[in-house]
Amino acid sequence: MTEAIDGLSVTRAGPLALLQDAGRFGVRRLGVTQGGPVDLHGWAWANHLVGNAWGTPALEVTFGGLELVAERDLAIAVAGADLGATVEGKPLAIWQPVTLREGQVLAFASPVNGLRAYLAVAGGFRAVPVLNSVACVMREGLGGHDGEGHKLAEGNRLRVSAAASREVPVGAAQPPSPPDYQQPGPLGLLVGAQIAEFSGTSLFRAFNTAWRVDDRADRMGVRLTGPRLQCRLSTMISEGIGLGAVQVPPDGQPIVLLNDRQTIGGYPRLGAFTPLACSRLAQCLPGQEVEIKAVTHERALADHRRFRGVFG
Amino acid sequence: MSQAESLPRIESAGLDGWMVRLFDDIDEANMAWLTALVRDCERAFGDVLVDLVPSYTTLLVIFDPLRLSPGEARTRLVDLLQRLQPDEAAADAPIMELPVWYDASVGPELSHLAELAGMSVEEVVACHSERSYRVFALGFAPGFAFMGSVDPRIEAPRLDTPRRKVPAGSVAVAGKQTAAYPAITPGGWNLIGRTPAVLFDRNREGFSLLQVGDRVRFVPIDRAEFERQGGDTRAMEEGR
């Protein structure tokens, strides 16, 4: 493992910026959550555009407001949301690798398209892994730039690999056209075991009307509001919950559980969104409308393998 | 109704997971089967296994869908279930002892439980500490073990308003269950004492003191012993 050196310093923290690798795995049986990027798609592309391997830590910037100063020349890429990022006051080209020069100021403003931007540096950010991951989970006090699960604060320094490339990698990946996060398209749901416990009418409505993203939305979960889902079960014995599980409390308003969800829970579930649907949902702002469509395992698996196939 | 379907069942749990439902009801005897299934899954899935989440009646199995299709994963589970035998060793595993200082200053609901049960505080302490418990699940927070079942006389519903901060080490009762808080978190359980034991330690092998299937007994200690073992004697924080 190569040495870590200072790469960027934080001059303004903004509301929420967290270092995330792919997530913390193998310890969920101990009550430790998954963590990792809530928009896996944007995070993966940011890393890929600067030639980083899958799993390399990148910064998840929610909403904007973050300002960083480069402490050396760095090849960087921003993918995911367009948060009006600038370098030295000039608009930064996103979804492509660019070179940030020593002393330059990289600033994120506020959402233009989507909610969360991912900043990757060639060679990767470096932090000491906690339980084999640097994924930052604030609630558990695990991971992140300091190992203690803290979001970035003014004065923090972000370490990067000493072998970090200073120039944009040659022949790097062909970037896709950035998604339009205001048009997320129907979110693919794998129906779950309790589907038969929901009333037919409420299921018909659930799959044929738009749901509104509530402002009660964070890295643990996103609440959707809309037609009331009626389920014969009110609660169940607590059991493990996977990424994207759509749990329905007695008020009939579903909660989509994301990366920082609790590991077990006791509400009936409509099913689970696919990983790519979770990524899209994580870029939705409160008030946005989304539709839910049922997909088969075969279809979801083919889409997921195509997505992951890009990154080797 | 699903209740009528035979057990065990393998249910859809997303693109990378299957939920194995072994039982419909909570029972201490479930745990020897669940821990056996955990062990068998580790063997059968090897490095395509991503996570296992055992809990009360189920085991959630998460695998890498890039290397094993959901269909193949299901076939492996069907195969395992046909040969599953309970883990005899787990049934009479050694009992872990958790020292507890039962005191009103760190267990503000001790007197409330005594009132509900029509017993003295000393009898509540005896009731809580004389039996052994089984760890049914870990969750809510790293290392938080849901244990059962408490003596019916000291069962008590959760607080109407959860506390914003429950001190680390707090030993608590809610319904039929008991637990100890590994770290400062919000919480709505009835606090009856505090343990000096470190329940979750990122630098310790295995990280969590308690694991699903473990047997646990709470052992009353006095303040001096609590302090000797490094317990934090600060009373509850002002306000909730």
TrEMBL record, chain A:
Keywords, comma-separated and alphabetical: ATP-binding, Hydrolase, Nucleotide-binding
GO molecular function, one term: ATP binding
Any Pfam family hit: CT_A_B
InterPro entries: CT_A_B (IPR003778), Cyclophilin-like_dom_sf (IPR029000), PxpC (IPR052708)
SMART domains membership: AHS2
Carboxyltransferase domain location: 29-311
This protein's name: Biotin-dependent carboxylase uncharacterized domain-containing protein
Organism in which the protein naturally occurs: Halomonas korlensis
TrEMBL record, chain B:
Keyword list, A-Z: ATP-binding, Hydrolase, Nucleotide-binding
Key word ATP-binding present: yes
Residue intervals of the Carboxyltransferase domain: 8-210
InterPro entries referenced in this protein's UniProt entry, alphabetically: CT_C_D, Cyclophilin-like_dom_sf, PxpB
MF GO annotations: ATP binding; hydrolase activity
NCBIfam families in the record: 5-oxoprolinase subunit PxpB (TIGR00370)
Record-linked PANTHER family: 5-OXOPROLINASE SUBUNIT B (PTHR34698)
Name of the featured protein: Sensor histidine kinase inhibitor, KipI family
